[in-house]
Design goal:
Number of helices: 11
Structural class: mainly alpha
Radius of gyration: 19 Å
Order of helices and strands: EEHHHHEEHHHHHHH
Strand order of the largest sheet: 1-2
Number of strands: 4
Largest sheet: 2 strands, antiparallel
CATH architecture: Orthogonal Bundle
Strand content: under 5%
CATH topology: ABC transporter involved in vitamin B12 uptake, BtuC
Number of domains: 1
Helix content: over 70%
Shape: globular
CATH class: Mainly Alpha
């Protein structure tokens, strides 16, 4: 059988693989959101802006200082994560014990500020970021020619996502993080500085978004609006997986990227809304999300 729904199988397989690339970005971004919400209870609407800032940090580092892609993979998340820590200390720490709506509104305002500043400096047009020389070229996978950089995105995203899950869910450090957010007074009684843990957790979540931005820079053009166009989809992914569920965000991001790719082949007009249709169905059937706790 060489066709499905009248479409050649190689075409479908190729689109599914490209969907997995998009799903890798969804997984990384939703992972950062899940970490911040699951451990801090903050709905971080500025996540798309931090993703955009990570891409811009890599582009500026190359354009102004000649810092290559590999160094940018380390430096950009650190710089943007440090910015996140400053914002957490100045603003977010005052909102932890009140309605999460205030955190959402604050982070939404921060996102608008970041977009506005970069649009004023660099304009709305996108900036191209070259694929690193080591990852140029393409590989014949039988049913399509896939650029090597796309392979790198899939492998690195999966490694980062599952490593983060392991640290939070299976290590002593992760247990300390969860305990600090669930019962801060008890943890402080053991001599652990809870405010520092909270601050570093937010910085790490923001750093994950910036890392996704660096990975995406050679794939899409770097622009001030690249985050706002993606963050709504990522929020839908987090809701489907379950707010605060690390594994739910990873698996939902990957699966929805593949489903979106399949929809582009079968019924392209629905590819932009299929994620939200699935979100509506999941909320109707299980409001806590597929992997969330009731």
């Amino acid at each position: 059988m060489n066709e499905i729904f009248g479409i050649p199988v190689p075409v479908i397989l190729g689109q599914l693989l490209l969907g997995l690339v998009n799903g890798s970005f969804y997984a990384m971004l939703s992972l950062g959101l899940a970490v911040i919400f699951g451990l801090l209870g903050v709905v971080n609407f500025a996540h798309g802006a931090f993703y955009m800032l990570g891409a811009y940090a890599a582009w500026i580092a190359l354009d102004k200082f000649g810092i290559n892609y590999w160094f940018a993979l380390v430096l950009s998340p650190l710089v943007v994560g440090a910015l996140g820590i400053v914002l957490e200390r100045l603003f977010l720490r005052h909102l932890y014990k009140i309605d999460p709506l205030y955190g959402l509104l604050l982070t939404f305002g921060l996102a608008l500020i970041a977009e506005g500043v970069l649009r004023e400096i660099y304009g709305s047009s996108g900036q191209s970021y070259p694929v690193p020389e080591l990852l140029t070229g393409a590989t014949n996978v039988g049913f399509m020619i896939l650029p090597n950089y796309r392979f790198w995105v899939i492998i690195s995203s999966l490694t980062i996502c599952f490593s983060t899950w392991f640290i939070i869910e299976r290590t002593r450090l992760g247990a300390t993080l969860r305990a600090a957010t669930e019962n801060a007074q008890l943890v402080q009684a053991f001599g652990i500085n809870v405010p520092v843990i909270v601050m570093l957790t937010y910085g790490a979540g923001v750093g994950l978004a910036a890392l996704a931005g660096v990975l995406s820079a050679p794939v899409i053009q770097v622009s001030p609006l690249m985050g706002s166009s993606l963050v709504i989809v990522v929020f839908a992914v987090v809701v489907i997986g379950g707010m605060g569920s690390i594994m739910g965000s990873i698996l939902s991001g990957l699966a929805l990227g593949v489903i979106e790719g399949f929809t582009k082949v079968i019924y392209p007009e629905a590819s932009n809304i299929v994620v939200f249709v699935i979100m509506a169905l999941v909320l109707f059937w299980r409001p806590a999300g597929l992997f969330g706790k009731d």
